[in-house]
Specification:
The structure holds three protein chains of three kinds. Chain A is mainly alpha-helical. Chain A has five helices and no strands. Classes of the chains: A mainly alpha, B mainly beta, C alpha/beta. Chains A and C meet through helix 1, helix 4 and helix 5 of A and helix 1, helix 2 and helix 7 of C.
Amino acid sequence: MRGHHDMGGLPAGAIERSEHDYAHWEKRVDALMVLLSAPERRLLRVDELRRQIEGLGPGAYDAMSYYERWIAAITRVLLERGVITADELGRKMEAVKAREARS
Amino acid sequence: MTAAETAARFRPGDAVRVRFADPPGHIRTPWYIRGRAGVVERLCGAFGNPEELAYNRPGTPRQPLYRVRFRQNEIWPDYRGPAADTVDIEIYQHWLEPRDAR
Amino acid sequence: MTAPDEPHAHDHPHEQAHAHPPPRPDTDDTLTYYKAMEVAVRELLIEKGVINADDVRRAMEAMDARSPAQGASIVARAWTDPAYKTRLLADPSAAIKELGIEPGVYKLVVLENTPSVHNLVVCTLCSCYPRGVLGLPPDWYKSRAYRSRAVREPRAVLREFGTEIPDQVEVRVHDSTADMRYLVLPERPAGSENLSESELAELVTRDSMIGVARARVPS
């Protein structure tokens, strides 16, 4: 079965040409990807990230923005590899949200 | 060639066919080219198999990677451009067989 | 080098044609689930000593330093120096190092447009792009519409970008599925014979190095 990401040759509409400025958080995601895949760390491979993105499922793939898919993939690889745990990630995300709510 | 690298089977100019197969996992052979015939344009070198690297496995032995050229009017039944139009795709050796293998 | 939160200062006129818009400050944005995830993951990794804040800042600066200006300088040199062009086509990584551009981990391939072949680059499976010489890709390059259609109806896609390729010129699409990254070397436009190398670089747009457009014609 054709993967949802494997779209070469499928019918599609006009190409939307407007471009968005990359937000800081998006550049930080990109930086994380570069840093974690660098030879001196090798904490993830681009191939693993791609597999994760391909596995997000069609709904998520289409609904998420490009860098949302990347951070979701990075996180999944780090969880699989045991670099971070779900528990500490969950607690940290709640802490980040609480900080934002206070500011 | 070392034990960590598979020997190259094909040379530029060879007529090849992309195997049809449909496994799950991380596959870098696009759906639209599976089963299609083309000509080897060049050997790009040998690289770790991305299907294995995707699971953080070493991906060895490294697989020869070829740039294969296809005629657009042989891929798409409704292609309306000139007959000379082509598409070049990098394909790993284990997805290729000689065109007239059967 | 500007700090990540400051707008870029582009005082070199050559770079005006390729200046990227300054990033939106994060303080304007609401904290979505995935933005919270990014902050959390980064902070965790810093706490664990896997990376530090300086690493992140430097990686962002390195990314910001990449723009189509690098690619344009390569093309302009190739147009003016036939021996360089020969070296560039034979071994792109070595040739771009001559211009002080670091090749990066992927293997760069340069595709020369000629009177008989027009090259177009796409990554149908994801968004592979020669970031080392062009910076970050435009949204449309990563879009469903481009990734689906470029390989199947390249001439219609080119037309949408305002580029008409005559029938006697072969359109060759490159689907970047593996470790190669492709840079199109557009044809040098007519009427550019007396321009300096930096003036020539001004004619080389990012879109011409992806292959959806030709280089600009001198005014």
